[in-house]
Amino acid sequence: MIEQSDDQVTKRQVSLRLLATSDVHATLMDYDYAKDHRTLNGSLARAATKIAELRADGNATLLFDNGDFLQGAAIAGGEGEAPPIAKKNPVIAAMNHLAYDAVGLGNHEFNLPAEDLQGILKQAKFPILCANLHISTVSDSAVYDALWQPSILLRVSSEDQFGTPHNLCVGVISVLPPQVVSWDKLRIKGRLRGEDMSVAVRRQVTRLQQRGVDVIVVLAHSGISEHEGHGSAENVALRLSELDGVSAVVCGHVHRVFPGPSYASQKGIDPENGTLSGKPAVMPGAHGSHLGQIDLTLVKQAARWEVIDAQSKVHALGGVDPIPEDDAMCAVVESSHVATIARMRRKLGHLPWPVTSYFAMVEDDHASRLVAEAKVAFVREAIAGTAFAAYPVLASVAPLKCGGRAGPAHYVDVPSGEMSARVVEDIQPYSNHICLYDVSGSHVMEWLEKGFSVYNQIRVGVQGQFLHDRDAPTYNREAIYGLSYLVDLSQPARYGLDGEVRNPQARRIADMTWRGAPVAPDKRFLLATNDYRGGGGGNFPMIQTADEIDVGSASVRDILEQHIARTTAEQEQKLDTWKMKSLANTTAFFETGPGAGAYLKRGGMPIDRIGPAVGGFERYQLRFSEFG
Questions:
Q1: Same domain (yes/no): 408, 269
Q2: Which residues pair with 276 in a beta bridge?
Q3: 3-state secondary structure of 151
Q4: Secondary structure E strands in 139-265
Q5: Which of 301, 317, 340 delimits the end of a domain?
Q6: By residue range, what is the domain housing residue 288?
Q7: Choosing a second label site near 541 at 20 to 30 A (CA), which of 13, 108, 478, 584?
Q8: Domain for residue 15, yes or no?
């Protein structure tokens, strides 16, 4: 909170309210299409109710979205399922209905083919912003031309304490991680050029100040990093808040909530009052879980208004007593909602056993294995008759729905029996495409070392340690199928989460074999992964020295659906994978969703249920002496 002087209190004051959503991921209504039931979680329709309430307070109010709005829930469609360009997109229709004042782009907007993104964004009745993605000079980049602008100046009227109206000039800038150019290179390589977020914001601040702006808001599709990083790192919201001229920051991308207890109080970060570098900031979760609110108080100083006080807060929208959904917004998307349910119920095949991800961080799980099988089958067909036909094919897979910040319901949980299209959505929630690399045994070893760096080091002979931080990004825990290996968590992690080698002598991966034979450093393999990982997502540095092999454009969802339809999901038992190494007299706690109990006895794992944990999770204890 900014301290007011006595002189400022006596001057004319005006207020300005900023409301923000972020990382909505097409969660328009409280319906989980992958599970085919309603939820008590957040949604844009719940946010709509709170937005109307806060707008009705009488304050001058602006509404923003901070990116990643088009992709995520099945109602948004996907490649091959996206609504035709001429058809109304349900996400844009909902946002038009809510009358957003400005919307920033997120990295997941570029999961869509350029032509589809162009057609969808042209339906928006609100300005779309991005200051650090620039059109390149190549001939086919015109598809992105004029879809967004770097910043905008909004004029809003606000009454002072005496009832006199005044005009405020509010500048809005938006930036996103420049790494999107690599993450989504399949669609945008060569067409767009990414720029460091701080450089772009600094330039736009200067331009807006030259236009006489009073307030500058940065929509930063970027998280709050509690550690210093290089200039083009993903999560630089703290650094952006330090820039002169910035009045307030909306953060996002990492699906966390700020202000709130998930952040520690440290230099520049005040999680209780909701400030970064002393400036108000919010991060409103993900999937419509929260609505961010920043209230500014301004006084006239010379020719411009100056912020003298600010308050930040976030409103939880779901939970035991959720905010009701706005009927008018639900009506706008009702036809798309009904059509999506019908599409998700389309029958594909049969599952001979349950598919879950509750124990994906503990052992080989059926959900990951299905994706690996589908990737391997696709690659073997693609390389038939080529010079690579004799190469062994491996597949890397990460658990994409494994609790964490998304909550205790964020797990794959599909019973055996007849399977519908919603299962594919459940297992593969993102619109990733397959990528194939020619790799060596050394590449594979380093890949696995990086993939298992999300775990804590487990001390031998110690009881009740935590296996991993529940906030750790499980989508960066990569397992490789087609090899057999042990994971020795008594060793420190060789890599940091940023991809830098932290412990050069450490090795967590042991006894790595292919078909029973040790893997030599120069042994050649084909490794199937996805375009996010291939583009640098998760900071796997070994990808930089591997040769990519062109196998065309194929979405992981499509090849997974084809694999299930063809095989009725019969597992290929020869597709070896990982196990935890036995550690004598050692236990560790592990938290997962409450649905895990139904599958505990089936797997025969050395694991015991402890009881409920914070946030609706369930705590289990692993007996490491019985692994391996």
A1: no
A2: 269, 279
A3: strand
A4: 151-159, 165-175, 192-194, 215-220, 248-250, 257-258
A5: 340
A6: 21-340
A7: 108
A8: no
Residue where a domain stops, chosen among 273, 306, 340? 340
Q: Which residue shows structure tokens 């946002």?
A: 95
What's the rounded Cα separation, in Å, for the pair 209 and 359? Answer: 53
Cα–Cα distance, 97 to 329 (Å, whole number): 7
Tell whether 321 and 458 lie within a shared domain.
no
Split into its structural domains, the chain has a count of 2
b or e along 296-306 (b: 16 or more beta carbons within 10 Å of the residue's beta carbon)? bbbbeeeeebe
Q: State the pLDDT at residue 80.
A: 43
Angle at 166 between CA 160 and CA 168, to 5 degrees: 115
CATH number at residue 451: 3.90.780.10
Strands 479-481 and 393-397: antiparallel
Query: Are both 382 and 443 inside the same structural domain?
Result: yes
The tens digit of pLDDT for each residue in 575-619 reads: 889 999 999 999 999 999 999 988 886 657 899 999 999 888 999
- Same domain for 231 and 95: yes
Q: Coil, strand or helix: which one is 232?
A: coil
- Regarding whether 331 and 392 lie in a shared domain, the answer is no
The reply to whether 153 falls in a domain is yes
268-273, Cβ contacts within 8 angstroms, sequence gap of 24 or more: 268/238, 268/241, 268/242, 269/224, 269/226, 269/238, 273/1, 273/312
Residue 298: CATH number of its domain: 3.60.21.10
Beta strand 102-104 with 37-38: parallel, antiparallel or unpaired? unpaired
Residues 268 and 360 in one domain: no
**Closest Cα to residue 282, out of 548, 17, 557?**
17
Note every long-range contact of 182-186, with CB atoms under 8 Å and residues 24 or more positions apart, other chains counting.
Answer: 182/535, 182/536, 182/537, 183/107, 183/110, 183/531, 183/532, 183/535, 183/536, 183/537, 184/107, 184/110, 184/111, 184/531, 184/535, 185/531, 185/534, 185/535, 186/433, 186/531, 186/553
Distance CA 525, CA 277 (A): 48
**What are the pLDDT digits (tens) for 218-274?**
999 999 986 655 445 789 999 999 999 999 999 999 999 999 998 988 999 999 999
